From TrEMBL:
InterPro entries: CellSynth/LPSAsmb/PSIAsmb (IPR051012), TPR-like_helical_dom_sf (IPR011990), TPR_rpt (IPR019734). It comes from the Bacteria. PROSITE patterns: TPR. Keywords: Repeat, TPR repeat. TPR repeats lie at residues 159-192, 228-261, 262-295, 296-329. The keyword Repeat applies. This is Tetratricopeptide repeat protein. Gene3D superfamilies: Tetratricopeptide repeat domain. The keyword Iron does not apply.
């Protein structure tokens, strides 16, 4: 009797396994037919159903993952490819695909891990650029630059490589190296006005306004919007290069949109002053005081402007008044040369 029960149990197991396999085959065929017609959702559902009968079937897992990718179900695709990799651990193409999916789904450390795994498996694919972008997102700037250098040796046509390198150097306050990388990136993408603006700002941070100004000009010529920030930074570069005739109209343009911006008014007043127009400078700083009477620096500069005009007593009184308002301004009394006095 026991032997009969055992035989019957074995038969049942075999029949169940056969039924399972028949079901897998049925849904695999459904998935393949739907995929061939580019009906991705029915194909995905069919392959998914196949995995419910056999969750280690490589064909079913690959079909489900591929269709999930077509449907932009990136997280599902990633997790399904992981299961497939467990079934096919030596598939270097799969490792690469999974690394890219991890990057798309912002799993940056896992991306790096998979790149390293692909290398140990002998993959010849250029995954250094993928690793570089993952390192950048994780703020590992040194490792990012090392990976970019490796990737660049294999393919020096990707403009994003020197651009990301520039961003790394910016984060590490190495503005000269960053500026060089921006120029390299723009040579590969010569219409990118955003990068031109960033190059200008980087040169300005060195500071090297002589080289910053042409990049501001190129960015505008390439169609960069005349935003407030852009124009103010452009004006600051002209100011820093003592081209006050060019900084003045830019400050004025921004002030039309931001008429009560105290920093802009102060800078415009300085541009007038250093261009030799003391009266316009005084008028501009007076606008600051109309907005905020406690602007001691404006009072001090008005005093300096009166001294420049030859009205020494009036000017000195105003300077002393400003110092009483803000004692830190006293240090400027010893720096007359900076005002051309």
């Amino acid at each position: 009797m026991k032997q009969l029960i055992t035989i019957l149990a074995c038969i049942a197991v075999v029949q169940f396994a056969r039924a399972q396999q028949d079901s897998v085959s049925h849904y695999l065929q459904q998935g393949e037919e739907a995929a061939s017609r580019r009906q991705f959702l029915p194909a995905y559902n069919a392959y998914k159903q196949a995995t419910s009968f056999d969750d280690s079937n490589a064909e079913a897992l690959k079909g489900m993952a591929d269709m999930a990718l077509e449907l932009r179900y990136y997280v599902i695709a990633r997790e399904t490819y992981k299961k497939l990799l467990a079934v096919s651990p030596k598939d270097t193409l799969l490792v690469r695909q999974l690394a890219e999916l991890n990057f798309q789904t912002r799993q940056f450390q896992e991306t790096v891990n998979l790149v390293q795994q692909a290398r140990t498996m002998g993959s010849k694919a250029n995954l250094d650029w993928l690793a570089a972008r993952a390192y950048y997102e994780m703020e590992h700037y040194g490792s990012c630059l090392e990976s970019i250098e490796k990737a660049w040796k294999k393919d020096s046509s990707i403009a994003q490589m020197p651009f990301i390198a520039a961003r790394c150097y910016i984060e590490m306050n190495n503005y000269r190296r960053a500026a060089g990388c921006y120029e390299q990136a723009i040579r590969l993408d010569p219409t990118n006005n955003k990068w031109m603006y960033e190059a200008a700002m980087t040169y300005s941070a060195i500071p090297d306004e002589v080289r910053a100004i042409p990049w501001f000009e190129k960015a505008l010529a390439a169609g960069h919007p005349r935003s407030n920030d852009f124009l103010e930074n452009f004006a600051n570069s002209y100011y820093g290069n003592k081209q006050f005739d060019k900084s003045i109209p830019l400050y004025q343009e921004v002030l039309q949109r931001k008429p009560q911006d105290l920093e802009l008014l102060f800078s415009l007043g300085e541009s007038y002053y250093y261009s030799g127009n003391a009266d316009q400078a005084i008028e501009t700083w007076d606008k600051m005081l109309a907005i905020d009477p406690q602007q001691a620096r404006a009072v001090y500069m008005i005093g300096i402007a009166y001294i420049k005009k030859g009205e020494d007593n009036k000017g000195k009184d105003l300077c002393e008044k400003a110092i009483r308002m803000d004692p830190s301004l006293a240090k400027l009394k010893e720096k007359k040369s900076m005002f051309g006095l």
